[in-house]
Amino acid sequence: MITVIGDIASNHAGNLQVLLKLCHDVASAGAVPKIQLYSDETFPTKWLGHLAPNCFIASVFRPGDIDVILPYQPMALKVASVEATYTELVDKCLSTGLPVIISTGGMNEDEFIELAMKTRARPDVTLMHCVSAYPALVEHLNLYRIASMADILDDIDGEQNLGFSCHSLFAGACLAAMALGATVFEVHVRPEEVATITADTECSLNTSQLVWLVNGLNDLNLALDQDAPFEGVDRPDVLKWRKRWQEK
Description:
Layout: E1 3-7, H1 16-28, E2 32-36, E3 57-60, H2 63-69, E4 76-79, H3 87-95, E5 100-103, H4 109-118, E6 125-130, H5 145-155, E7 161-166, H6 173-179, E8 184-189, E9 204-205, H7 207-223, H8 235-246
Parallel strand pairs: 1-2, 1-8, 2-3, 3-4, 4-5, 5-6, 6-7, 7-8, 8-9
Helix pairs in contact: 6-7
């Protein structure tokens, strides 16, 4: 099973109606909307009452944000790359019993191993490969890091999921990440038509592009079925066609 997260970030441009429309469009595309409690200026906490319970993910940046968001019943909590070594924040997220998604942009291997050990027995935790640049250039995406992360989890018998938080408009980045083992994908999402440029506009998909991505990931998930037998469904026909020269 795959999960696609549509991070609205600042793309609501301070307009509640734009936020609610984006939440609706992200959900209609088959993804999960995500909000960021970065500050009351970028996301007024009074807006939280307009969000349907269990239908959104929340990025938290301070331990106090968790107390604010829990009454509104988010589906999961997200920790951004910069806060991934903020022990008090990570520990408090893990203590809530909610699924926790942690981006690992900028981490070195030792820091990742420390985080992986902390969360190793938590199948409700997703560790996201991320390049924390807005936008991230294709040559900096370092997608094979996902395979290295998988090797580390294998070595410690970790139960976490792997994901990819994408800040690139390269259409194949998330598809390649899936082939390398990612099952959770995060992209920034903006309105179809941008009225106000925000800090996140340049690295954001519009809602039509999000639909394409979700459909593409679902199709690729079918094509990468690890339980498929070695013999393909084409074998009976191929055996039949072989007779054309075998009987000559």
